[in-house]
Each structure stands twice: as C-alpha cells, then as structure tokens.
Amino acid sequence: MSRSQKFLIVLLGPTGVGKTELSLSIAKHFDAPIISSDSRQFFREMRIGTAYPTDEELTKGKHYLVGHKSITERYSCGMFEMEAIELLNEIYQTHNLSLLVGGSGLYIDSLLKGIDDFPTPDPELRKSLHEQLRNEGVESLRQQLKILDPEYYAKVDLKNPQRILKAVEVCLQTGKTYTSFLTRPKKPRPFTAIKVGLNRPREELYRRINERVDKMIEQGLVDEVRNLIPYRNLNALNTVGYKEIFQYLDGEISLPQAVELIKRNTRRYAKRQLTWWGRDDEITWFHPNQKDEIIQYIEKQLKEKSNGKT
C-alpha cells in the first residue's frame, strides 16, 4: 500500500446486526481508528437506548464521534460531514486506513459523497411548515413529501417529523426534489472507500433486535428516559426507544406495551435502513459471523485499489 494512498473501510448494516463487535476485530487487524456514523450514539446522554458501546469495547480500539455531543447541542448531517473530514485528515497523518461504523445512511452518504449546500431557509416558509406540523400533524407533511419527492419518501424515517419537514421545505423552496441534493456528483475525498455491509436472515435479525430491547429495559432504559424528561422536546430524543418510554411515563400505555412498540418500531427502522442501501451496488454483503472472509475481502480490495484496479 502506498504511503500516500488512504482508505476508509465502511462497515454498515441495520440496527442490531452486530456491527460493534465485528468492528473491533477489523480495527485491531488493520490498526484502524474507528469513527462512528451512528447518529444516535453521538449524544452522551443516550447510552442505553442507543446500544452505546460499553466502556470495555471503547477501550479495545480508538473511537471517535461517540458521545461527543450533548442532546442540548445542535448537530446536523452537514456538521458531521465537516467534522469527520477534519478528523480523517488528522488520522491520515499517522494511519493509511480508518474504519467508519454505523447504520445512519444519510450520515454515511454525507461523508462519502458530500451533501451539496442546501438553500438558506426562507423564514416565512419554515414558519408556515412548523404551523402546519403543529396544527395538522406529521401526516399532512408526509403526504406532501410523497407527492414532491416519492424517492425520498420511500426511504426516509416517516416517524421523524423534522426530517420530513426539512425535505418538504427544500422541495417547496427550490422546486427540486430533496433527493437531487443527495445524489449530485461526489465531492473530492482524501480517501478511497471500501464498503462492507452486514446482514442476517430476517428472523435472526428480528430476534436479536427483540433481545436487545429486553436487555435495554434490564439495564435501566426507563430511568434513563425519565432523567431526560426536561429535554423531551429536543430533536435528538424524537427517536425509537425514547418516544415509547415517554408515552409510558405519561401514562398513555403500559410498560409491556411500550416494550412491544420499541421492538416493532426498531424492526421497521432496520427494514428502512436496508431499503436505503438496496440500490448501492458498491456494497459487498456478509453475515457478521464471516469475520475471516470479511478481512480477506478487505485485504483484497486494498491490494487491488492500491494497484489502480476497480
């Protein structure tokens, strides 16, 4: 491998598939620092509900962008893109290779391709959309998005009102689809990417998700969410595992009902994640148990890409 050529191994896959454990083995084998692209693990107050790496796991490899923000801080996909590029430029001073791990497709894409600058928001349009959300609920915005940008509608988290509002806002303001801003030509990057996808048979994945939710409850998810009640309106907490427990704490549903909702909504989220990556033919997919095959594949890719092959 040339000293001047830098690589980014991208280890992606749906929630609960087993990325964290495998990433530690890959990081150790290649002496690669780990950068998180899990948009929920950025926040230090959300440890249990986001399956945050354990202290032991964090000590097994050099980790970046895990728990580095507070839920009270504004953090966007564009900010992540800039921060991750700066970080990689530092890492590449001493390493030829780094490892990006996570399941947030939009954040991964922003680092690999770049997100073109969105237009400066129109205050009046934004105000009217927020009023629409408040008065009519998220469903009206969903229906608008379905008409304005059916491609983005098919893969966005339909339970995330802020993301839907943003997409509708861009569509109305520019007359273009939100997707068009996400699929423009790639920006120059200081690395060559190698994408490795992890997946399991659906039943196996869903069983792991269900077991992980049960484990979160045992670890104290209810208390974690209870401590965050003063911040419940922040966007970071508008996510699976937290919304349902807030409903329980409000007395709207029982704890068993909340647990079942978390499991169901997490399974649906995993399905949406897989849909997001379904059209990306640059990803080579493996079962997480294929550690040796994955390492061999990465080594082969490094060799071929170093020699100028595709």
TrEMBL record:
Catalyzed reactions per annotation: adenosine(37) in tRNA + dimethylallyl diphosphate = N(6)-dimethylallyladenosine(37) in tRNA + diphosphate
Keywords tagged on the record: ATP-binding, Magnesium, Nucleotide-binding, Transferase, tRNA processing
EC number: 2.5.1.75
Residues the record lists as binding substrate: T15, G16, V17, G18, K19, T20
Region (Interaction with substrate tRNA): 38-41
SUPFAM superfamilies xrefs: P-loop containing nucleoside triphosphate hydrolases
Keyword tRNA processing among UniProt keywords: yes
Source domain of life: Bacteria
Cofactor(s) demanded: Mg(2+)
Site (Interaction with substrate tRNA): S104, R126
GO molecular function: ATP binding; tRNA dimethylallyltransferase activity
Pfam families in UniProt: IPPT (PF01715)
Enzyme class: transferase
Known role: Catalyzes the transfer of a dimethylallyl group onto the adenine at position 37 in tRNAs that read codons beginning with uridine, leading to the formation of N6-(dimethylallyl)adenosine (i(6)A).
Self-association state and partner proteins as the record states: Monomer.
Similarity comment: family membership: Belongs to the IPP transferase family.
Protein name: tRNA dimethylallyltransferase
Organism: Tenuifilum thalassicum
The gene coding this protein: miaA
